[in-house]
Input
Amino acid sequence: MRVLFIAGGSPATVFALAPLATAMRNAGHTTFVAANANMMDVVSSVGLPGVPIVEQPILHFITTGRDGQPIDIPTDPVEQARFTGRWFARMALASMPKLEELSQQWRPDVVIGGTMSYAAPLLARRLGVPFIRHAWDAIEADLIHPGAAEELREVGLDAIPSPDLFIDICPPSLLPPTPEAGQPMRFIPANTQRPVANWMLRRGGRPRVCVSSGSKITRSRNYDDSYAFLRELARTIASLDVDMWVAAPQEVALGIREDLGDVRAEWMALDVVLPVCDLLVHHGGGVTSLTALNAAVPQLILPRGAVLVPPARRIASLGAGAVLDAETADAAGIAEVCQKLLADSSYRERAHLIAGEIAAMPLPAEVVAVVEDLARANTDGRS
Output
């Protein structure tokens, strides 16, 4: 069977699909992962063959309209979510020529796309093969999909086709109030790895706090000032009596070390280092949040986007962490909440409960059989 996975334009969207894609390959199926050209090294880093389908990076679609003119990002949370859907749809439309060219040479039997990989349903419908939507994280996209549908209608396309199967990696207690019915699958962290050093495996004498703003962050000024956010967050945590690690891409980590002095900042695979950490402080990324829960590590979340707020609040409501407004939280408030999370063992106990839920979900290898049955039924229906 030929299986095509379509990721997004950031490393997290690749990491989220990697466990099932790897399981499909291990089951003997030919599996490709399609993504933006600048994600090919990331795809290769998780041991999968990549297909570049659009030359521009993700930032191009966030800041540029179909007419090539710069666009402003809305500040209203609802409009911001719709805006997210629109730029994901623009990215999907830009990828269709390459995907159609690929399918002429290598026709997939099933197309699996991430939460907002809108090219996946469009391609699957054109080819007449099953489309599977694979959740990237525990973030619901109800407010995002309408924006994508609007963008597609403007170029004469119908509404986004519904999936033939939805694979959900959200643990049961974190599901939204009205969850979409789907096939549950265990979240397994995937990362670009690096050689494991002894310091990654040891606990220190002081509480250890890991700080991150995700894998998409760059050192240069961009649309959301993510580097400044990470730098100030790290500066705040460094002022506490803790052992701080900053997990960031190497260029960003270099800047953090230059700005803050003697701190441990470098690329760290979170699945390796979090088990010896006492707290994760981060931007609210869905894959980052699930990786912390999988390691049973409490987290302080400062969501950097409207769609990241609801899942962050659900984590806090379950007692596995806390959430602060990224726009209004000051250093004193962040420090106070960090100290509370470190001092109260109940947060780690609650995180352990959710980690147990994750461990009990079906493994990707088990979900392979579900995908095989879906593809087989489609083939039998055509014969």
Remarks:
- The mean pLDDT is 93.
- Residues 77-105 form the longest helix (29 residues).
